[in-house]
């Protein structure tokens, strides 16, 4: 059973045993379903005598068996007509890693391991490196990060933008036995596929047009230290197998190199995306997820831990050179009522601006606080009468729909049922609003 350390255990509680998740491949409309895997394994096929019957014309009567084993799943093809496929290769019998996806006929079969999520009590600390917070959700995060810093295991940091994922990664490195080594940040969302490949894995002189000299790549540069893979959810699907091999073997073959090179690197990855939803829709590999998420920390959005706001404001006032003053009164009330879509980064900007605009020596209560959704007196008006009334109103409503839907889908991790719940509207109506706003949602895993 895979043991993972995390501060979010609800999902794993729901499914404790080994499972397979069956999804229709892109050319088949099959609804996703999950099946628990007994220790003896299962036979999949079109025949009604199989443990799992697949209504798929490309599946043989007795197609394949899947048996849970230590460290993965043993998969055997039973001489099927169309074969059992993994990563584009036909397999007869193989040990397959947890999280991997097989293709049988028009059906995708995800292999999901039994999990034991370890629920650790909140830490007593109210900070971890530069991360601050005394609320229970933050102290639960600190407990996970404290464990993570003592080990060599890969860490996955999840949370909305501005919740402190990069700060957490730096702090883990600083507290780990690798603190004397480099901390290398690599942003998987910042470049195109080929560029990412050479920047992350390195290249040899002459590997492609413009490769004038050898280039070490982020992995080699992090030797003896930590590689922080930011926005891992944006790593192109085509590069994910190469990263998986790197995680499994600690070796990489740079572009144009003849032999693999070995390095000693600890991995920390982060994303603001719902990776689980991306796995469901085939954008992210499940086996890579399980490799990266040995320790998984969910950084809560600021709106779920508003009791931390006074502590954060006080620290931010100090960092910006303001005099020490009580953080209370109507100004604090406003900060507590606000939803903080940009999380602590937004709070940091609001306080930095307040200090910059305030008279020297001002106390917090006298500072000008400007929040994004509040219109300051001197702000641009949202509409002008230089176009006809109906036209201006239409343009404003269009913009409203676009902004609202973009934010809504981000909050709901592109899950449309969740989005409809958050917006408190019918799903059908949500489809219409999205279409009007010209937004095409990604497929979600909501049927699983
Ligand atoms: N718990 C916290 N305590 C103190 N400061 C914080 C905390 N969380 C975030 N910050 C502040 O917010 C800024 C943004 O944090 P960070 O870059 O780590 O966020 P992130 O989650 O990695 O965002 P993104 O997903 O956009 O990269 C930090 O520079 C820091 O000033």
Name every ligand kind in the structure: adenosine-5'-triphosphate
Strand percent estimate:
15-25%
Indicate the structural class.
Answer: alpha/beta
First and last CA, distance: 22 Å
Count of discrete alpha- or pi-helical segments spanning 4 or more residues: 14
Strand order of the largest sheet: 13-1-22-16-21-18-17
What is the percent of helical residues? 25-40%
**How many whole angstroms does the radius of gyration measure?**
25 Å
Sequence stretches where pLDDT stays below 50 over 5 or more residues:
374-380
Short description, anyone?
The protein is an alpha/beta fold and 448 residues long.
Structure, described:
The protein has 448 residues and is α/β, with parallel strands linked by helices. The chain is 32% helix and 20% strand. The strands form 5 sheets. Strands 13-1-22-16-21-18-17 form a 7-stranded parallel sheet. 35% of the residues are buried. Bound molecules: adenosine-5'-triphosphate. The site of adenosine-5'-triphosphate (ATP) has 17 residues, from β15, α3 and α11. It comes from Pendulispora albinea. This is Sigma 54-interacting transcriptional regulator. InterPro entries: AAA+_ATPase, AAA_lid_NorR, FHA_dom, Homeodomain-like_sf, P-loop_NTPase, Sigma_54_int, Sigma_54_int_dom_ATP-bd_2, Sigma_54_int_dom_CS.
